[in-house]
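Hi Y.,

Following your request, here is the sequence exactly as I used it, all 356 residues.
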Amino acid sequence: PFFRFFKVNLYCDCEFWPDAGMCFSPDCCVEACDDSEVPEPWRKEVQHQLADRVEDKAAHPEGGRGCSDPISPVDRSVGAAEVANLNTVRNWSGLNNPWVPEDDQDVDFIYVNLQLNPERYTGYKGEDARRIWQSIYAQSAFDDVHGHDLVVNPQVLEKQILYRLISGMHSSITTSVIQNYYNETSGEWGPNLPFFKARFVGDNARPYVENLYFTFLFMLRSVMKAGPVLQSFDYNTGFPEEDILTRQKMQLLERSPALLASCKAPFDEGVLWQAREGAERELLEEQLQVAFHNITKLMDCVGCEKCKMWGKLQMLGIATSLKIMFSASGDPREPLQLHRNEVIALVNMLNKLPDS
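Below is the corresponding structure, written out as C-alpha cells. Let me know if you'd prefer a different format.
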C-alpha cells in the first residue's frame, strides 16, 4: 500500500489567470481517501508537531489561507480531525528540493488513493486545456531550445533535457488518455486508435515518441543513482509483511538485469553544467528552476481535479528525478535525502511510463 496513496493539494487558486475553467464531469473528480484507508503510522508519526503548528499560527494569525476550495461535486469523506492527523512534516513534498516551489499550506492537502483515481479520459479539453500546455511550452527557458536532439547545441544541453522531460510527460499523459478513452457514442471505454495515429504516427510525431523514451531512461537512471537511498528508505505503513515485500521489490528493481542494461548510458549526467561555471551556471540553474516552478504552479490552473492530481504527481516525479540527477554523487557533506511523497511520485511515474 505504500505507493498507493499520494498527498496532494487540489485547492490552490490559479496564479496566472483569473478565469481558469472548471470541468464538472464526474470523471474529472477525485475521490479523497477515507481516513481509515491511510496507513496509521503516517497519521501518527508527527502528531507532536501539530501543536507547534497551532502555536505558530496563533502567533501569526495574519498567515491565513493561500488557496480556496474548488467548485466540484467531490465527496470528501475526511473530517476535520482526520485532516489534522493526516498533516505531516512541513514542506513534505519539497523539503531540500530546489525544483519544487515551497508550499506551507499543509492544511489544504488530502490523501488520494491512486488505484481509485486512474489517469484516463475525463472530457477535459478545449481552450482551457490548450492554454495550459501553451503556457508550459512558452517558458522563457525554452526560447532557444529547438527540436529533440541533445547534440545540436551543448550550450543549451540542460534546457534541452528539461524540455524533453516535459514533452515526455505530455506524451505519457496523452497515451493514458488514448488507452482509456470514453466513446461518447457507444458509451464504452477503450483505446482510441484514430487519436493514437494522429498523435504518434508519422515523421512529425517522432520527437514525441523519442522524448517519451528519453523521459523513461532519465528516470530509470535517477532510480539507479538513488539506489542506496531507496534501499534504506522507511516503507512503513503499519503492515510489516507488506512493508517487507515493498522493500524486496525495490531491491529487485535496482538489481534487475534489464534495468542495469537499460541504464548504462541513456546519457552521461557528468557532462551537465560543463559548458558553464560559477555565476553563469548558477544563473542558468536558477532560470531552469524558475521555469519548472512555473510549470508546477500551472497545474493549479487545470480545471479537472483528476488531471490536476496526476499532473502534480508527475511534476513531483520529474522534480525528484532532477533532484537526484543534479545531486553531488557520494558527497558526505550533501547527502541525498528523499521524502515519502517524492518516492511515491518517482516510482508511480516510473511505473506509468512503460505503459505509455
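The chain has two domains: 2-116, 127-355.

Thanks again,
Q.
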